[in-house]
Design goal:
Layout lengths: L3 H16 L5 H30 L1 H23 L3 H44 L2 E2 L8 E2 L2 H18 L4 H18 L7
Antiparallel strand pairs: 1-2
Length: about 190
């Protein structure tokens, strides 16, 4: 594969069938968009889980350090030791920043498939007549895809723990959260 055109040619058979399930083009576009959004959500969720697994120890270490320094800063505040409080609070803020940006990285790992989906839809459909409000005229597919993606992502987040694999991943992440709050706790 040497171009996005090759990638789109690869994605086309995997996606286009959902747009052709029903004869009505409006319903087909909606149904196909929901399917593409669901694919993007699932691939993004798997990518985020893999990125977390790769960075798990660092993530837990940052969380542990943030909590430890935060607790120490509160102890120093209770002892009215302003200098120790500022030092511990500064270290807690640094650990929070590292933890925050690692979380932002995990979020980015979850949304990169959206770019592929939008690229494929733009290549396949270009501009489309607005389906709901024809007075708007022609719009790009992302006009409808992004709101559909958001709804699919919210619904998926509510129902994914009904799937056995996700229940197991969720139990593992809960164990990690407990390990981060336990002094000297190690991830399972």
């Amino acid at each position: 594969m040497n171009s996005f055109g090759d990638l789109n040619a690869l994605l086309d058979p995997a996606f286009i069938w959902a747009f052709r399930l029903v004869p009505d083009p409006r319903a087909g576009f909606f149904l196909g968009s929901v399917y593409v959004a669901l694919c993007a959500v699932i691939v993004g969720d798997v990518a985020m889980s893999l990125a977390y697994r790769i960075n798990r120890k660092a993530h837990l270490a940052h969380q542990r350090e943030m909590l430890r320094q935060g607790d120490m800063s509160f102890q120093a505040l209770a002892c009215k030791d302003k200098k120790a409080y500022k030092a511990c609070n500064s270290l807690a803020n640094e650990a929070f920043g590292r933890n925050f940006f690692l979380g932002a990285t995990l979020f980015c790992a979850s949304v990169w498939p959206v770019a592929l989906a939008l690229g494929w839809m733009d290549e396949r459909f270009g501009r489309v007549d607005d389906l709901i409000a024809p007075f708007i005229g022609q719009v790009r597919p992302e006009f409808w895809f992004i709101p559909i993606y958001i709804v699919v992502r919210i619904v998926f987040s509510k129902v994914k723990y009904g799937v056995p694999l996700y229940r197991r991943l969720h139990a593992s992440s809960l164990a990690d959260a407990v390990a981060a709050r336990t002094p000297g706790g190690e991830p399972a």
